[in-house]
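Example 9 (inverse folding). The structure is encoded as follows.
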């Protein structure tokens, strides 16, 4: 007959539920002062960083206009197309598949390819495209349909 071992899983400590909980009392394991000891901080919060913030790096609609109906298309720069495999048809479906853009926003506002960044892969582009982006795509051997 085989011996059954003990279960070593510990329950998590319930913070701030009295001294008997092991993490009770005045500060309940949060340290003494500061924003983190007083309230929850959002997942997106990065302190005072602005230049390299995650939200700024992503191709999303920001600012006052994001809730207003708009005819302006979403902008996708060439540097974001580097994650696509070589020879891919660049259309809304493939950009949603590779998580470059959100499907609802892309269908609502449309897309336009702009020429910021470097492109090293041959891609077939089936979206509106700027002149500078068109030159870069043709330079690496891609096509525009």
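The amino acid assigned to each position is listed next.
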């Amino acid at each position: 007959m085989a011996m059954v071992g003990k279960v070593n899983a510990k329950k998590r400590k319930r913070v701030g539920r009295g001294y008997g909980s092991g993490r009770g009392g005045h500060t309940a394991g949060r340290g003494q002062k500061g924003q983190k000891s007083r309230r929850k901080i959002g997942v997106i919060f990065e302190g005072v960083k602005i230049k390299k913030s995650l939200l700024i790096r992503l191709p999303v609609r920001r600012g006052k206009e994001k809730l207003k109906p708009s005819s302006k298309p979403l902008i996708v720069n060439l540097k974001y197309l580097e994650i696509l495999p070589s020879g891919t048809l660049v259309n809304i479906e493939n950009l949603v598949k590779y998580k470059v853009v959100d499907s609802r926003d892309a269908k609502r506002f449309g897309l336009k390819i702009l020429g910021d960044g470097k492109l090293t892969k041959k891609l077939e582009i089936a979206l509106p495209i700027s002149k500078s982006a068109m030159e870069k795509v043709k330079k690496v051997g891609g096509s525009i349909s």
